[in-house]
Give the backbone structure.
Amino acid sequence: MNALSLGLAASGTRLAFSLLGQLSGQRLSVLTFHRVHARPDALFPGEPDADRFDQLMRLVARSFHVLSLSRAAEHLAQASLPPRSLVLTFDDGYADNVEVALPILQRHGLTASFFVSSGFLDGGRMWNDSVIECLRASTRSGLDLGELGVATAVPLQTLEQRQQAVQLLLPQIKYLNLEQREVALARLQSLCGVATLPKDLMMSTAQLRSLHKAGMEIGGHTVSHPILTTLDGEQAEREIALGRERLQELIDQPVQVFAYPNGKPGQDYDASHVALVRRLGFRAAVSTAAGAAGAGADLFQLPRYTPWAKGLPLWAARLALNQRRRRYDMAVAA
Ligand SMILES: [Zn+2]
């Protein structure tokens, strides 16, 4: 995108969000990212690479007032949210957030909040990445995944077929309990004939510290990223509290914000988890319900929304439409 069209997209975005703010009160847009790849990765078609992320951040820097989540929550609580407020969030703690995203954020003078699952630091791996990396590395031309509840003949000859296999497997494994998931992943790895999987996908503790030293906010995201509704109360409290304690030890600062793993209200967390996060002393938490928080929002279930569109003007238009969404349908009653 050239400088002129970026300038037009940015001034259009500023105008649209200023008008929306005047019409229906200031609302907070919160974007979610997971990985930012150094180069395009065909197995993650929805995730940005460095060039795409740079374009988005250029637009964001010119169009929005970007805040950390804790600062935005303070403004919401005091009904003093600046016009065109936006928060950038990153979930899970991927190493590429530090290696790829951080220099781009710094180049554009932006701040962001990073929700890190403490159990994966220093060589851990999220289960979904185990699935993806197994299917990436397998030299098999096809797999029988019948015993994993998927099709008996899954071809792996083309990139598209590998993508499809990932899309078939992820929902199948997502809602298994921890033990069943381990078994399924071990079985998948052996079916794929893959001896070792990457151990450098997530941040090291040194990277986490450097992210914090660079002025970025660190938030809790449990120890091992369980779906909280599958745990009993004691287990859920341990996951949330111990994850936070570990991060606090590492950055030597209080951790004040939290993101519910997976984050769908009523499905991935419920009112008891909202109450728990509040009782543990966090100041704010985010879900993955779409919408934009305005005055009177529940600070412990702030909605997030990331538009998907190739062109920046459409991306910005979708983000503007999100400002009009009725988010309260999506929050659990706390
Ligand atoms: Zn997550």
